[in-house]
UniProtKB/TrEMBL annotation:
Coiled-coil parts of chain: none
Organism: Solimicrobium silvestre
Family matches, as SMART domains: HATPase_c, HisKA, PAC, PAS
Every PAC domain range: 376-428
Keyword Membrane in annotation: yes
Gene3D superfamilies in the record: 1.10.287.130, Histidine kinase-like ATPase, C-terminal domain, PAS domain
Name assigned to this protein: histidine kinase
Pfam (any one): HisKA
Length: 670
């Protein structure tokens, strides 16, 4: 319980702080303190009580489940006894030929895998038929005693389980059914149960997953054990006697669940004290009742449950026969395409939900599906009944029967409309980030650009003033004014070029990848690079290999990458001497790529910066957004290239990116 530090009570009298009424204020803390004292025992006792209740509930649940499993095993044994008794009646009545009886024996063994073998003995205890190689000498001592007891009492008898020696040593339990015709013993039917198979075949998987199950005698000799989920913890246990004639066989259950932890219940109890206890208890009880009812329903009607499970899936399911006819669709698929099950089942290609623009791709995939056992997920579009298109992701696999023969195709269809919308939103967000990055870059260039524009504008103003003064002085020949006008024109073109470079870089537009030379991109962005370099008093050296193959790029996006990398390189060399301030840019062919390297000679980067360099919102600059390099890498990867960096051996950092080259018969000179 947290310790509360109570402030000293104060009152304000005539704008002065006074402590004369502190006893009165302290009285307000008495009820919370008393409540805390009263709740302390509850906080201690409630978890203990909750733990005990949870333990008892688990034990009661285990007892109920054990009873259900025990009844299931007994029910199956009784069914087998009835089947054996029917065979015995046919033998007594001599109404079925021996060969037909033997066939029925074999069929019974195959139908019930928990049965190890079935033996037909005559009146002299000689084997007339056995589903496995067998001689009477192979009977265990318990089985021989059971034969004598069954014959003398004229009632069926189980024998105590025993190990059958041989190539495959197994523990068997024999059931002897004596046959009498007109009170004369004519033989016996003996069926052997493999003890391990009783647990494997007659115990549900969901029960075996949570419990260690064993069959023992009264002396705790284990005949069979199943522990799919691990061995029990001896916390929740229960035993049931199978109550079989002639044998003491005990079904023991040992849950793998451990004792409920006190700490977790203590935390839950603390939450309960905050007002949610009653609601949580009622909800937990309601949930437990629903789960128990659902489990009981599933056990009684497994096929119905499986059908309901398929129909409740949000993933669309459809089954096609080998000839392409729809034979099954689940409700999720019907909701997805807007057609009812009656409208779809029995339909063949072209199906009503096929989109006209994708019919060719559907038709092409049909023969592919005829040659492959499965088809990995592929995207296409379906047409809803109301006409709108639905992007879907389809997985298809072969549908096999019990004999392994293919009977059709099973497909699962996912509606990926939300994913497509999220991808669109992500693309728009990235575009906005790119635009913000360009605007941020231009903000940094604003002062330099103003200085650069000031020079041509000042020159234009000077030449214009000189021309006006000459004109005021008298008649002036055009040839005299021509040099001034030419200089004014050149300076105006220079200012216009600077403004156009800025405009082309900042303007927002859709990506447009065209085939071009990288030299053209550098010619466009070079004025902006030189503007930045001039403000830092840095010399720019550009080397472009000739000839270079074309590349398929969006020039504006690539200009943003180049400008961002060069700006980082320039800023990294601010502390160097003027002789060391050299920015190198090298463009050359590298295999099937065109490689661009931006080289600075600064101080390099620490390991902590290297590890987080491309992380979003990480920046070493106080005013940086931390998105520049991340956006650059996204742009380069969008073009099919890669952005990397390494330390410069002479000091500084080398950023390198590659772009796939477009090979052509003739290389365009840039």
């Amino acid at each position: 319980m947290p310790i509360l530090k109570l402030p000293k009570p104060i009152t304000i009298v005539d704008n002065h702080i006074s402590r004369t009424r502190s006893p009165f204020i302290k009285q307000h803390w008495v009820p919370p303190i008393l409540l805390a004292i009263l709740l302390l025992p509850v906080l201690i006792l409630l978890p203990w009580r909750s733990q005990k209740i949870e333990f008892e509930d688990r034990q009661q649940q285990l007892i109920a489940d054990t009873l259900w499993v025990e009844q299931g095993i007994r029910f199956q044994l009784i069914r087998n006894e009835d089947s054996l008794r029917v065979l015995g009646d046919d033998i007594i009545a001599n109404s079925v030929a021996p060969e037909q009886l033997k066939a029925r024996f074999s069929a019974l063994i195959q139908k019930h895998p928990e049965l190890h073998q079935l033996i037909w003995l005559d009146a002299k205890d000689q084997v007339r038929f056995s589903t496995r190689p067998f001689t009477p000498a192979d009977f265990s001592l318990y089985s021989k005693q059971a034969i004598v007891h069954a014959r003398s009492s004229e009632t069926p008898q189980y024998a105590q389980p025993a190990t059958q020696e041989g190539e495959d040593s197994v523990i068997l339990m024999d059931y002897h059914l004596p046959l009498f015709r007109h009170n004369r013993y004519i033989g016996s039917l003996v069926v052997s149960y493999e003890m391990s198979e009783i647990l494997e075949k007659l115990v549900p998987w969901w029960f075996a997953k949570d419990n260690e199950i064993s069959l023992t005698d009264i002396d705790d000799i284990v005949f069979a054990m199943r522990a799919d989920g691990g061995y029990g913890h001896n916390v929740y246990t229960h035993s049931r006697n199978l109550d079989l004639s002639g044998v003491n066989l005990i079904l023991k259950i040992n849950s793998i669940k451990s004792t409920p932890r006190l700490l977790s219940n203590y935390l839950v109890a603390a939450v309960v004290l905050l007002g949610l206890g009653l609601v949580w208890s009622l909800w937990a009880l309601w949930r437990d009742i629903l789960r128990r009812q659902a489990a009981e329903t599933a056990l009684r009607e497994q096929m119905a449950f499986r059908s309901a499970m398929e129909k409740s899936l949000v993933t669309g399911l459809r089954v096609r026969s080998l000839d392409g006819r729809l034979v099954y669709v689940n409700p999720a698929f019907c909701d997805m395409v807007g057609y009812t099950e009656q409208q779809l089942v029995g339909q063949k290609a072209p199906l009503p939900f096929w989109a006209a623009e994708a019919i060719d791709s559907y038709q092409k995939r049909l023969p592919i599906m005829g040659k492959n056992m499965s088809l990995s997920g592929f995207e296409t579009v379906y047409k809803h009944a109301d006409g709108h298109l639905i992007p879907v992701l389809i997985y298809e696999s072969a549908l096999l029967d019990d004999d392994g023969m293919q009977t059709g195709w099973m497909g699962s269809i996912l509606d990926i409309s939300d994913r497509k919308q999220a991808e669109q939103i992500l693309r728009q967000h990235e575009e906005r980030l790119e635009s913000s990055a360009r605007l941020s870059t231009m903000g940094e260039l604003a002062s330099v650009m103003a200085h650069e524009l000031n020079q041509p504008l000042a020159a234009i103003s000077s030449y214009a003033t000189g021309a006006l003064n000459m004109m005021k002085m008298g008649d002036v020949e055009p040839s005299v004014l021509q040099p001034a006008l030419i200089q004014m024109q050149n300076q105006a073109q220079r200012a216009g070029q600077i403004i156009r470079s800025v405009h082309d870089f900042v303007v927002k537009r859709e990506p447009n990848r065209t085939q071009m030379q990288l030299k053209a991109v550098f010619n466009s962005v070079l004025p902006l690079i030189e503007l930045q370099a001039k403000s830092y008093l840095i010399n720019v050296q550009i080397y472009i290999e000739h000839p270079l193959p074309d590349v398929l790029v969006d020039s504006i996006s690539l200009e943003q990458v180049i400008l961002n990398l060069t700006r980082n390189a320039l800023q990294a060399m601010q502390e160097l001497t003027l002789q060391q301030r050299i920015l190198q840019i090298e463009v050359k062919k590298y295999g099937n790529y065109v490689q661009v390297e931006v080289i600075d000679h600064g101080a390099g980067m620490d390991q902590d910066v290297v590890d987080r360099l491309f992380s979003p919102f990480f920046s070493t600059k106080a005013e940086g957004m931390g998105m520049g390099l991340n956006i650059c890498r996204t742009i380069i990867e969008f073009h099919g290239g890669q952005l990397t960096f390494r330390a410069n051996p002479t000091g500084g950092t080398i950023f390198c990116f590659t772009l796939p080259a477009i090979e052509s018969s003739s290389t365009i000179e840039g």
